Amino acid sequence: MKTKLKKKRGLESLRSRYGYTFIAHWALGLILFFVVPTISSLIYSFSKIFILDTGFKLEFLGLANFKEILFENPDYLTNIRDAVGSMFYSLPIVVALSLILAVLLNQKFPGRTLFRIIFFLPVVIASSVIVRMLSDPTVNAQIFNLSSEGQGVINYETILGNLNLPAQISDALIFILSNAVSLAWSCGVQTILFLAGLQSIPASLYEVSKIEGANKWEEFWKITIPMLRHVISLVIIYTMISLFTAADNSIMSAAVKLMSAMDYGVASAMLWFYFIIALSFIGIALVLYNKLCVKKWE
């Protein structure tokens, strides 16, 4: 018996070594390309960097870089406000639109595969020139301009201004129309996640609901949404991170400019403070979602 146990332990330990060997490349890449740069950027945020012929030299400044971006930089807090506001406008639109698209694509209809390919295109060409062009607010604005014969071009901002809406509502509508194409284009991954969640819901639940006389609207709120509660939380996290780290983000653009000017300390402080703000909003959103929604659906 002892020899058999030793043989089994030896075989199990050999298999575990294969597993460690398999993840060794990932662990090495994680340490070299994520952990080390993250720690370095944190150190840079408290330092001033001098570029020398032999390398670079660090001078510890404490919180001086953070004081500069918060009290001396006139645009930083405004950029944070704009980034957070843009996230609050975009998050419900992206989540709701991707859920609607997933529900539609989960139905059986002719040409379903073709439509799935069309809606999954953003995932394939997410870094292409097309996305950069569609992300341009001027392109979105041109799409939603209305033309009238003999009257020239009527801009949607003019139309909303003539409606005498409150400033908060009109600003939100202008933002949505200005970024409608880019918001729709950014629903690819979220649609895939929702579609995977929809396909994991047992069909027997819908069959029972039909027997009980429930309509489609009741099935959606009583079965679909509760069964997708964990997928929704995943989509919320992914969407918030994607919006906070968007390429056209003013914070990111300002940090890149500072890095181009070799001011790595202030740029690192700017990004770390922004990271704390983003992480705080993500945590608050998840806590509220779990308390207000998940507990009711479980």
For the CA atoms, what is the radius of gyration? 25 Å
CATH topology of the largest domain: MetI-like fold
Tally of discrete structural domains: 2
Strand order, sheet with most strands: 1-2
Helices, by number, come to 15
The residue ranges in which pLDDT falls below 50 over 5 or more consecutive positions are 146-154
Instruction: Report the CATH superfamily of the largest domain.
Output: MetI-like
End-to-end gap = 48 Å
Oligomer: single chain
Residue-averaged pLDDT: 78
Secondary structural class: mainly alpha
| Share in helix | over 70%
CATH C-level class of the largest domain is: Mainly Alpha
What is the 3D form?
globular
Largest sheet: 2 strands, antiparallel
Any guess at the CATH architecture of the largest domain? Answer: Orthogonal Bundle
Order of helices and strands: HEEHHHHHEEHHHHHHHHH
The beta-strand count equals: 4
Strand proportion, as a percent range, falls in 5-15%
Report on this model:
This protein has 2 domains: 1-45, no CATH class; 65-297, MetI-like fold (Orthogonal Bundle), CATH 1.10.3720.10. It is built from 15 helices and 4 strands. The chain has helices at residues 2-45, 64-72, 76-105, 112-124, 129-134, 137-143, 156-162, 167-178, 180-185, 188-199, 203-211, 216-227, 229-244, 250-260, 264-297; strands spanning 47-52, 55-60, 146-148, 152-154.
Gist of the model:
The protein has 298 residues and is mainly alpha-helical. It has helices at 2-45, 64-72, 76-105, 112-124, 129-134, 137-143, 156-162, 167-178, 180-185, 188-199, 203-211, 216-227, 229-244, 250-260, 264-297, and strands at 47-52, 55-60, 146-148, 152-154. The chain has a two-stranded antiparallel sheet with strand order 1-2.
